[in-house]
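User: For my dataset I need records formatted as: sequence, then structure tokens, nothing else. Please produce one.
Assistant:
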Amino acid sequence: MHKLRNTDYFPTAGLQFHCDRVILSPNVTVTPHSHEFIELVYIEEGSGRHSYKGNTSRIGAGDVFMIEPDVEHAYYVDASGPLIVHNLLIGPAFLQQEIQSLSALSSFIEFYFVEPMLRGSFQFKTFLSLEYTQQVHLMEQLKRISEEYRDQPVGYSLAIKSQLVTLFIFLTRCYENKNGPKAILSRDHDLMDSICAFIHKHYAQPLSLDQVSRLCGMSTASFSAKFKKHAGKTMIEYRNDIRLSQALQLITVTDMKMSEISSEVGFEDVSFFNKQFKQMYGQSPSQFRKRQPSH
């Protein structure tokens, strides 16, 4: 499987962003590949199939979705006509602060982080499919971003960041208004494995039990029971254990303040972080650091 590198699309360290509009001819296959960056895909015209984590779904005009880094995917274009695809490639550091701010919006967390993960465990009934007026609005936003990227006037990097934030807020609102169940359930074991893997990767994000339960098509009680049976603890306990393990490493190998470490691993309240840490390790974070050889 071919892997696309950041250096293939981001020649300078200052702008980890690339956008293009690709016209794929009828019957063309884009072979399985992965990439180091995040990709936002919008289907402007045409239809085909998209393979993602081994699952294949129909795609068509108006569909918009995220592709996670290091995940294999491929396209298969229908014979009826070309497939016109807009690709926005975003390097891991380009929108770091902006993504952190947007993560306060629960629907953004679902669209940007959770749905791509669940797409590997579920056969989704649909991607985020935009209505006609929404498609027109999105095309206007993509045009502005493309012009900034192409012409690179003064301040273009900041302008692209600002317009991407506006675009993600728009898509988050569209996702918030999306009706109907989001997924068809697959095997519980595979699903819970995917949830656990997702938490390991995004433990610092403000992901709630209600969000994950809803996206899994379960009640909170049903999801909680299945997760505890699988992992031996609740989802919140599982996530907090990972956060505390990461905090332990930061305390050991860095000189970061406890408030900084607490925030870094996802705890908003330092007092709660201290309490959880002492409950797990039998001593406060400060006491643990003082007992390390380097301190």
